[in-house]
DNA sequence: AATGAATGAGGGTTCATTCAT
DNA sequence: GATGAATGAACCCTCATTCAT
């Protein structure tokens, strides 16, 4: 039994990094040739590792899920973990602006995408419940709102330089935060 | 000399309607063939009226600008005109879900798109100023925030059925509205 | 109303001729690029006229069916029309050596191929019945044998020069003819 | 020095069996990956044993030649050995339907194929001469006709299930046999 | 002025073959 | 010696755009 090729794992990582960068610059419909070129890898290598675009995106999502998981582990039972996650999400999108597109990816949600989304929401749920219990967020906040917020952030940041993205993300969070907090009764208009 | 101008105008309108529908369904990168087919028009006719994709999108934006202008005219000097415009913007996106994409369209902002955006912001500015003066919106709200909000709404709504879009738009506005209102001092976290 | 483009029909014919030649030389799995090149035509022109390989082959079959039909018309009610058809089939294969492959074409018989085959057999049936009635051919000869004979002739001739094909076809017919004639009782071996 | 030759021989046989099966199903242009997969062997192993497709096919032919040789040995000096060989050829093609393709293989006859064909014809020649001498077959039958018949049988059986092949082969032989027997003088047409 | 046929560049994918482990 | 990961050439096909009718 041979050991599981360390170079294969390297290639995979190279490809994922390249894909993340390319998708960030040109959107998730970017030519896969760009990914191949950036990874400095043969064309078929991409296709063996990721038979189609969806599976490539799926793998990128899996990486994100793993990162989220370890982040949540770090945060432990903190009451404000939910908001930390939102901030981290924004930071992640600033870093990797195609991120948000991954979640609604590739014509009508392929299975790997659906699975990853499911898992993310499951991971976030306890944090959301704790925040609600602590009265830190509005009472009617839903898991589905997290998806919505992610989409909104992602779209806002598309096609910008990294610095612009950072500025815009900060502002977007400023505009969104009050809407996540507990709501006073509002006067009728 | 024949005077058949209305004919040409009709073709243009047909093409724009078709483009709006097709872009709404398939995104603004949809094959222009689909537009041609839906407009039931010869292929070159599209290209005579709109030499490239950007000018087609520019024309769609112009239509929106014109609608916005007449809407604002209707609203007159009402203090809440700004919020009416935001709602109208959301409604317009629900109806025509590619709308938001138009604003950041086609690889790094083409001139017709840039122009149209400029004009929209100029139209909205007075309403924003009035809302600020009346204390109806947060003091630091900028014109650039309108672009941001538009992006955020648009992204939330892509690729859904009309009903889903309507539900999501309502929710997105619920989340965004508190952030647009005047802000209390917030306790330090 | 414009007249129905004469040049379009020309292109179609050019393409069919080119396809016949190329398939004859390299088999029916030859790269379609060769067809395009030989027809001196843009690549997409091929694809508009014939969306896929099967439809190209289908069209080639249709041409053959039409030729067969007019040939049979010429022959009228002659008792030996069946053998004339067999000879013509061989001649046709000599001229266009991919012909036989067309009949069992492209992974498990596509609909256009199936249709064309059906029509050919229907056309030949009367001639076969007349030959049987006149005692010119063996009593148990079936329509399906025609397909079989066509396959056998075709295979014998692939990838040869025209002259070699002609010699081989003559020989193949010499070997096959006695088997098509009425059979004497054979002594048990 | 280790003496692990049987191991290598086993691999070779595995590969040949796999190739025969795959070529039978998908034709002799089938992806060699399928052969590798079916043989459950590393990819480079195929290439070490058989540097290219032609040499793989050549090896398959050699196997057939060997079988033919031992079959002829069994038959001894029987006068009808020639017809036994024809029947065996048909049976072999029914079993391994790519067989006939092997003989005219891979773009204009590669050397290993040419060699194998040569040897087969040499093996068959005595049987043919005996049959002729005994008046069992037509006087003008040539060695080259054997090639022709093999092609014809092979083509007739391509792309069919085993059962269909068996039925078709029987029929094809029925049609061909009279043409191989001594010919009466034929009335002028 | 309007049509739709023609074009060719480029994307996705497969596969024979080589090379590092 | 054996493995399977990596390579790149080549194929099929789509689509924005031009041009003959």
Fold and architecture overview:
Four copies of one chain form a homotetramer. Chain A has 189 residues and is mainly alpha-helical. The first copy, chain A, has a domain at 53-180. Chain A is built from nine helices and no strands. The first copy, chain A, has helices at residues 6-26, 32-39, 43-49, 53-75, 81-95, 99-103, 111-133, 143-157, 162-180. Chain A is globular. The model of chain A has no long low-confidence stretch (mean pLDDT 87). Chain A binds chain B through residues 29, 80, 100, 104, 108, 145, 148-149, 151-156, 158-159, 168, 171-172, 174-181, 183, 189, and chain B through 29, 80, 100, 104, 108, 145, 148-149, 151-156, 158-159, 168, 171-172, 174-181, 183, 189. Chain A binds a DNA duplex (21 and 21 nucleotides) through residues 2-3, 5-8, 11, 31-33, 41-45, 47-49, 51-53.
Order of helices and strands of chain A: HHHHHHHHH
Residue fraction in strands of chain A: under 5%
Count of helices of chain A? 9
What is the SS-derived class of chain A?
A: mainly alpha
Biggest interface, chains and residue tallies = A-B, 29 and 29 residues
Poorly predicted ranges of chain A:
none
What about the largest sheet of chain A? none
Assembly state (oligomeric):
homotetramer
Distance between the termini of chain A: 73 Å
Task: Give the averaged pLDDT of chain A, no decimals.
Answer: 87
Shape of chain A: globular
- State the share of residues found in helices of chain A, binned by percent: over 70%
Please tell me how large the radius of gyration of chain A is.
Answer: 18 Å
Number of separate strands of chain A:
0
């Amino acid at each position: 039994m041979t050991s599981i090729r360390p170079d294969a794992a390297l290639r995979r990582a190279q490809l994922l990094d390249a894909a993340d960068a390319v998708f960030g610059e040109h959107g998730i419909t970017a030519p896969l040739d760009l990914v191949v070129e950036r990874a400095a890898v043969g064309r078929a290598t991409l296709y063996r590792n990721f038979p189609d675009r969806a599976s490539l995106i799926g793998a990128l999502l899996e990486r994100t899920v793993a990162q989220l998981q370890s982040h949540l582990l770090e945060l432990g039972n903190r009451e404000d973990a939910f908001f930390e996650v939102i901030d981290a999400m924004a930071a992640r999108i600033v870093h990797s602006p195609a991120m948000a597109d991954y979640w609604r990816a590739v014509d009508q949600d392929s299975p790997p995408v659906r699975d990853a989304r499911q898992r993310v929401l499951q991971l976030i749920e306890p944090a959301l419940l704790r925040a609600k219990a602590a009265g830190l967020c509005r009472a009617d906040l839903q898991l589905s709102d997290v998806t919505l917020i992610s989409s909104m952030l992602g779209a806002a940041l598309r096609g910008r330089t990294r610095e612009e993205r950072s500025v815009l993300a900060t502002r977007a969070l400023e505009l969104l935060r009050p809407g996540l907090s507990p709501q006073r009764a509002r006067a009728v208009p």
